[in-house]
């Protein structure tokens, strides 16, 4: 053994040797000091990373003995795969943080040597196999931290350091006493021998000793409610130091706890409960936190608790195969993303959560911050996502639904406060130019975060590979987005063309969806491309628009062809993120983007839990796992349906939708309504279809149908009340999706054919309408119904397009809307759901009403003041013409759609369902539509007549028109905003709980000492009570 | 009920809980009549392998010297941290504590001439004979530092050359690590003191590098403690 | 009744000091008294560590001329651990005192209730 090779022992030589040398080098000269630090830090990093690579490659553990004697006589260290992975990443992170820290610590030698030795201390915590030595390294880390905290010179900073010291002194006293008592009880200090001796938790000395050690290390990890002192330091310390504590220090602490875990194999449940409490409480409290660094502190504590939950549960259920992948995934995700967040927030001088940082004007920084926030929120493509997915699946397999709930709810809170900060940070800062100049970032500010982001991307790819998700379906949308990101300097219209070409070409490379999905695929792709073409109507570079549109459209294709739950979910999250970022491009839309994202993530987490439970019950992770489900247990399916309904804006959970649609850029709204909403419909349809093919005996069709119908009616009523075109159309979209949900709820061939028909119809219609009102808004400068009027002359083509769309949507013959409505009514009658059919008829009437209202308000009557200056731009009109073409073709040649629909649905039924052998045409002809057709034609005639009079006679119409435009179907008192009131209540309630949760953190050092002591007592009381297995 | 009452009430609860836990420990304690296996092993090994009759020193400076290295690091970090920590701040509210009288008094002043050499010799003895009899680097270093503190008290106006002391402790620290590496290269492992001949049990020159380590430790601890004391003196 | 074993007496003393220390930390609002409390805890722990290593009738684990095969030693490990614990305790106390001085310079008070700027 020679020190010349890179050996983990070198970490200690460089750490201590370097640390001891620095003061001497400082006397020689500052350059020497800096060179010495760089050499020592680099040497430490290399001595951790290079041997780690070889250990991980060979799987062979490096055992390090000291003093030339064997353990237990001497202290030994271990550098196995686990130690290697954690040591190497922690040391590397420390080295990168040193770059961020450089400006602060370079002038004196003390912080430099403290940083060096503290990093070494973390390595010792990870590698030592001696309990008392563990205490010594704990103290090295602690004392190093105490010294480094001298860098916080504000009042709050010095106070925080004092609180930190007092609390950690309690913790280390517990560890010390526990270690010595354990030696007394067992005769061992060597951890391996201690584990072998398995001291009983209930024995008076050994049990108390174990409780002391456990509580000591738990307290070091700042558990709720004994972790307030940690938050104070995160809030006040220089950001790179906070980052060091949050990621490097925590790495050592959790590893130390992890290696002692075999001593507590009966207390894993207790650990899980404690960590779950911390995870939930931290993220809950984070919701109310205004200081960015304290917020990151709450998030850090939460992330460490999540890691602890995973550690305890995976050990408990013996999931040894996936444990490394889950634990290291979660660990490295937090390590990189949180370090990046702290550094970036520090560099940007972020203080308060609601403080805008002008990031929208600095796209590279926005991207960087976005990467970290997405990673911490556990979203793809970063390592935490893959790990969390596997963790949830393991929890489902182990029948821990409550824990799944806790993790997902906590994650939702965390995502909520991080994205709230992110969206706020995008906004323009109120700063003078001189201040802006002061804020110029240096290389040291930017380099580490960029490095962390790159490692995150690499880690994400590795995680995807490990979970078998590194397929073209996952990678291609991102690559397309990245390619367009590189093309950002080009002019907007060139990027638009490039995006369309890339999406079109990319879709050819993606696996072709089959069956029902095969029908959605081409329809949504074609519709998406046509609508996205309208982007040409917007001048300027449109930074950040085209990459996300490409990700969005390609991810939808990936989603449709997904073979596994994971592939589906990954694509689903890409769609969610791309949509949210597209909405958030408009400054005014960011509040709505946040709401959109929170509801979308809630939906996504329902899906995740649902998939996990289904996969656990069915024993397969295929997207078709539902088929393998037995009878009973419908919770998984219920969660899936809930998730899809949230995204389909079903009644009650629709509140995210109108605002997001109204505030997003017009072409984005068109995409969201016409194309993106269909992903939820596809999921719902697939679920329904699979349930029918399974042995399950759940009857949720009727409920679903009624939810759909209620959504339809409520959406229509709300649409009638809107004064703004886009809001009106947003509610109309909700209403129309309700029809589709109803159709799916029919749980039969006819209903699903209808649903698919409606999907195509709604896509075409909403594409036209949103683009048309975009054209109107472009020309009139307003989206208020009251500001428009008489546009028929100025914008005849747009009027014609809207007329066709309206007719089609209203379910009037002869256009395709009629066919779909007719099919729906027929299907309801077939099922004998007459009440539903009647409700459907009412809804159709309401739909007709608001559509006529829209048309009248925009195009009829006298031209409004200001008026339009001409027809909409060709870039907006061309997609509309194409979509109208689609309507006409499908109306007059329904077979073009019906045949593929039959082909898609029939073979899938052939296998398991007895179908009565009727072809679609016979079903279509089951009832004679003639009377209906005739009455509808009469209605059209009346409408046309009205229209003509309106155009002709300018004197009579204004009153009638005004009455129509301003009419309300029901007095407001009869339509209380129940959903909004409910969700406001939920928010207020959550905030109140959050305030209560964090009130315990009084900021008083004595309170914190008291809480740490009580925490120990709680552990000591609980530990022996756990029954031995 | 005010926050303070709640605090005191819960504090009483916590203290009662601790007292109960401690009384359980004391109650379960049985005074052993023989050493455990590991401890007995040390009693056998220290003289045999290291030629060090003081088993505690054998453990501290050889078998568990990795701990010792760590605790040296802790002390070193604290001595270094006190400099920036006790530096005058930019934004103080309270003025510096008033200086004590320049004159330490006749007894102390005269006493320190007599006592300092004795303290120094005693400290050196404890350091150098730590491998043979009760003592060692830490203990001796602390004794010497006591002498230096005495000196500071006796000569209020005197200044300790912190720079020199810091350089001393740093240099000695580097040597300590170097000794560790010597063990790695020339003996059985990092910090193995047996790269020097073991000598005869009970002789002054014995125990491999242990007396050397003890000396380094003594100097280092004395220097560090002195720096700590001087920093507090302001 | 026989007298209490010496190690038990020591343990009671040690744990008593620890309790006394924590009482000071929890009750006294002056942070210097809190630091003294921590110091008491450290001392208590050191005494406990030594007490736990006591063997009935044992002598210091130093071999000398009087040592015979029948000599009983106390546990040398505890002594070694106690040295380490004492040194670390000293170091931490020093740094805590330094922070107390810093706090006093910044606030002009040593009352712990004044140091609650960061909270919740």
From TrEMBL, chain A:
It comes from Sedimentitalea xiamensis. The chain crosses the membrane at residues 6-25, 32-53, 84-102, 109-126, 132-152, 164-185, 197-219, 240-261, 267-285, 292-313, 325-348, 360-382, 402-423, 494-510, 516-538, 596-615, 635-656, 668-692, 704-721, 728-750, 756-777, 797-816, 836-860, 872-893, 932-951, 1008-1026. It is found in: Cell membrane; Membrane. Belongs to the CPA3 antiporters (TC 2.A.63) subunit D family. Its main location: membrane. InterPro entries: CPA3_Na-H_Antiporter_D, NADH_UbQ_OxRdtase, ND/Mrp_TM. Residues 129-413, 566-846 form the NADH:quinone oxidoreductase/Mrp antiporter transmembrane domain. This is Proton-conducting transporter membrane subunit.
TrEMBL record, chain B:
It holds the Pfam family MbhE. It comes from the Bacteria. Keywords: Cell membrane, Membrane, Transmembrane, Transmembrane helix. The chain crosses the membrane at residues 107-128, 140-160, 172-191, 203-223. It is a multi-pass membrane protein. Residues 36-87 form the MrpA C-terminal/MbhE domain. Its main location: membrane. It is found in: Cell membrane. Belongs to the CPA3 antiporters (TC 2.A.63) subunit B family. It comes from Sedimentitalea xiamensis. This is MnhB domain-containing protein. InterPro entries: CPA3_antiporter_subunitB, MnhB, MrpA_C/MbhE. Residues 114-225 form the Na+/H+ antiporter MnhB subunit-related protein domain.
């Amino acid at each position: 053994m020679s020190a010349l090779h890179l050996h983990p022992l070198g970490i200690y030589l460089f750490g201590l040797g370097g640390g001891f040398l620095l003061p001497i080098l400082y006397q020689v000269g500052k350059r020497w000091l800096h060179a010495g630090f760089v050499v020592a830090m680099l040497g430490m990093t290399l001595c951790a990373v290079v041997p780690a690579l070889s250990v991980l490659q060979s799987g062979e553990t490096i055992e390090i003995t000291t003093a030339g004697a064997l353990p237990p006589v001497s202290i030994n260290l271990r550098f196995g795969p686990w130690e290697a992975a954690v040591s190497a990443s922690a040391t590397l992170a420390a080295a990168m943080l040193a770059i961020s820290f450089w400006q602060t610590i370079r002038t004196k030698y003390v912080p430099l040597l403290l940083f060096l030795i503290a990093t070494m201390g973390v390595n010792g915590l990870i590698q030592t196999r001696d309990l008392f030595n563990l205490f010594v390294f704990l103290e090295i880390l602690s004392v190093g931290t105490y010294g480094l905290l001298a860098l916080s010179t504000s009042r709050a900073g010095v106070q925080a350091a004092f609180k930190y010291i007092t609390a950690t002194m309690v913790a280390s006293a517990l560890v010390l006493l526990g270690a010595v008592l354990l030696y007394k009880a067992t005769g061992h200090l060597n951890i391996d021998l201690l584990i072998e001796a398995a001291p009983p938790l209930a024995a008076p000395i050994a049990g108390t000793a174990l409780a002391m050690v456990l509580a000591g290390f738990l307290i070091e990890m700042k558990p709720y409610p004994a972790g307030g002192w940690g938050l104070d330091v995160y809030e006040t310390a220089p950001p790179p130091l906070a980052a060091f504590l949050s990621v490097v220090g925590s790495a050592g602490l959790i590893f130390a706890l992890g290696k002692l875990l075999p001593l507590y194999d009966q207390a894993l449940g207790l650990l899980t409960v404690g960590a779950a409490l911390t995870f939930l409480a931290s993220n809950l409290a984070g919701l109310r936190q205004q200081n960015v660094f304290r917020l990151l502190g709450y998030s850090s504590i939460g992330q460490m608790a999540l890691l602890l939950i995973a550690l305890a549960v995976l050990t408990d259920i013996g999931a040894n195969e996936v444990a490394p992948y889950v634990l290291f995934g979660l660990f490295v995700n937090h390590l990189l993303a949180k370090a990046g967040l702290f550094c970036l927030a520090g560099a940007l001088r972020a203080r308060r959560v609601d403080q805008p940082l002008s990031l929208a004007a600095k796209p590279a920084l926005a991207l960087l911050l976005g990467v970290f926030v997405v990673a911490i929120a556990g979203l793809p493509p970063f390592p935490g996502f893959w790990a969390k997915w596997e963790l949830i699946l393991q929890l489902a397999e182990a029948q821990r639904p409550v824990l799944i709930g806790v993790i997902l709810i906590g994650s939702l809170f965390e995502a909520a406060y991080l994205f709230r900060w992110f969206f706020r940070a995008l906004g323009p800062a109120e700063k003078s130019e001189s201040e802006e100049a002061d804020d110029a970032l240096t290389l040291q500010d930017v380099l580490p975060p960029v490095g962390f982001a790159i490692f995150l991307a690499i880690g994400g790819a590795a995680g995807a590979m490990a979970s078998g998700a590194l397929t073209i379906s996952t990678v291609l949308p991102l690559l397309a987005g990245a390619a367009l990101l590189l093309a950002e300097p080009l002019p907007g219209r060139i990027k638009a063309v490039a995006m369309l070409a890339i999406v079109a070409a990319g879709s050819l490379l993606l696996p072709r969806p089959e069956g029902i999905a095969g029908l959605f695929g081409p329809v949504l792709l074609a519709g998406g491309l046509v609508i996205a073409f309208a982007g040409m109507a917007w001048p300027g570079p449109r930074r950040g628009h085209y990459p996300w549109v490409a990700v969005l459209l390609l991810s939808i294709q990936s989603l449709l062809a997904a073979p596994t739950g994971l592939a589906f979910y990954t694509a689903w999250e890409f769609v969610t993120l791309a949509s949210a970022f597209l909405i958030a491009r408009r400054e005014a839309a960011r509040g709505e983007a946040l709401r959109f994202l929170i509801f979308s993530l809630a939906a996504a987490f329902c899906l995740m839990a649902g998939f996990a439970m289904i996969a656990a019950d069915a024993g397969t992770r295929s997207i078709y796992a539902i088929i393998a489900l037995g009878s009973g247990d419908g919770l998984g399916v219920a969660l899936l349906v809930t998730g899809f309904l949230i995204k389909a804006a079903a009644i009650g959970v629709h509140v995210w939708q109108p605002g997001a649609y109204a505030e997003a850029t017009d072409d984005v709204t068109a995409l969201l309504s016409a194309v993106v909403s269909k992903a939820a419909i596809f999921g719902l349809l697939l679920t329904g279809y699979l349930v029918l093919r399974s042995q399950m005996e759940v009857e949720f069709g009727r409920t679903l149908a009624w939810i759909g119908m209620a959504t339809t009616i409520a959406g229509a009523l709300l649409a009638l009340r809107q004064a703004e075109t886009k809001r009106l159309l947003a509610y109309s979209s909700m209403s129309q999706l309700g029809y589709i949900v109803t159709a799916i709820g029919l749980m039969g061939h006819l209903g699903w054919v209808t649903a698919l028909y409606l999907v195509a119809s709604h896509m075409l219609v909403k594409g036209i309408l949103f683009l048309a009102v975009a054209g109107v808004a472009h020309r009139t400068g307003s989206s208020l119904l009251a500001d428009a009027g008489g546009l028929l002359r100025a914008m005849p083509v747009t009027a014609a397009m809207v007329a066709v769309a309206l007719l089609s949507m209203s379910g009037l013959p002869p256009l395709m809307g009629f066919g779909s409505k007719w099919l729906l009514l027929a299907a309801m009658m077939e099922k004998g759901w007459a009440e539903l059919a009647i409700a459907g008829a009412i809804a159709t009437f309401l739909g007709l009403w608001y559509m006529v209202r829209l048309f009248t308000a925009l195009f009829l009557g006298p031209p409004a003041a200001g008026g339009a200056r001409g027809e909409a731009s060709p870039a907006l009109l061309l997609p509309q013409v194409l979509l109208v073409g689609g309507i006409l073709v499908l109306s007059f040649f329904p077979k073009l759609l019906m045949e593929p629909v039959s082909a898609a649905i029939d073979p899938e039924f052939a296998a398991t369902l007895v179908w009565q052998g009727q072809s679609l045409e016979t079903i279509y002809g089951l009832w004679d539509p003639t009377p209906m057709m005739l009455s509808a034609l009469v209605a059209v005639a009346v409408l046309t007549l009205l229209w003509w009079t309106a155009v002709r006679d300018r004197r009579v119409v204004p009153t009638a028109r005004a009455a129509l435009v301003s009419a309300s179907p029901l007095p407001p008192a009869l339509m209380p905003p129940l959903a909004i009131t409910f969700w406001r209540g939920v928010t207020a309630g959550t905030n109140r709980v959050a305030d209560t949760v964090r009130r315990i953190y009084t900021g008083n050092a004595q309170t914190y000492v008291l809480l740490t002591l009580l925490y120990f007592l709680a552990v000591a009381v609980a530990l022996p009570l756990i029954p031995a297995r | 009920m005010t926050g303070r009452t709640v605090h005191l009430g819960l504090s009483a609860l916590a203290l009662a809980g601790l007292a109960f836990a401690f009384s359980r420990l004391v109650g379960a304690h049985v005074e052993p009549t023989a050493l455990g296996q590991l401890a007995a092993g040390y009693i056998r090994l220290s003289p045999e392998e290291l030629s060090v009759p003081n088993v505690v020193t054998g453990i501290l400076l050889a078998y568990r010297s990795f701990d010792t290295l760590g605790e040296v690091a802790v002390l070193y970090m604290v001595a270094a941290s006190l400099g920036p920590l006790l530096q005058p701040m930019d934004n103080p509210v309270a003025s510096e504590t008033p200086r004590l009288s320049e004159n330490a008094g006749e007894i102390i002043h005269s006493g320190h001439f007599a006592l300092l050499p004795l303290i120094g010799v005693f400290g050196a003895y404890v350091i150098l004979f730590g491998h043979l009899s009760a003592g060692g680097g830490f203990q001796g270093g602390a004794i010497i530092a006591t002498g230096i503190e005495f000196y500071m008290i006796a000569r209020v106006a005197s200044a300790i050359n912190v720079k020199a002391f810091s350089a001393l402790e740093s240099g000695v620290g580097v040597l300590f690590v170097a000794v560790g590496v010597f063990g790695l290269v020339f003996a059985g492992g990092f910090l193995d003191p047996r790269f020097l001949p073991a000598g005869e049990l009970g002789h002054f020159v014995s125990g491999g590098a242990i007396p050397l380590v003890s000396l380094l430790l003594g100097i280092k601890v004395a220097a560090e403690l002195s720096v700590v004391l001087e920093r507090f003196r302001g | 009744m026989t007298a209490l074993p010496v190690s038990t007496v020591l343990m009671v003393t040690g744990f008593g000091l620890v309790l006394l220390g924590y009482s000071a930390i929890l009750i006294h609002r002056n942070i210097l008294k809190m630091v003294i409390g921590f110091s008491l805890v450290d001392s208590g722990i050191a005494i406990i560590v030594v007490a736990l290593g006591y063997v009935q009738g044992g002598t210091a684990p130093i071999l000398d001329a009087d040592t015979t095969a029948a000599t009983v030693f106390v546990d040398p490990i505890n002594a070694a651990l106690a040295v380490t614990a004492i040194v670390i305790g000293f170091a931490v106390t020093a740094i805590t005192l330094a922070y107390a001085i810093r706090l006093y310079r910044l606030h002009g008070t040593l009352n712990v209730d004044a140091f609650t700027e960061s909270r919740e």
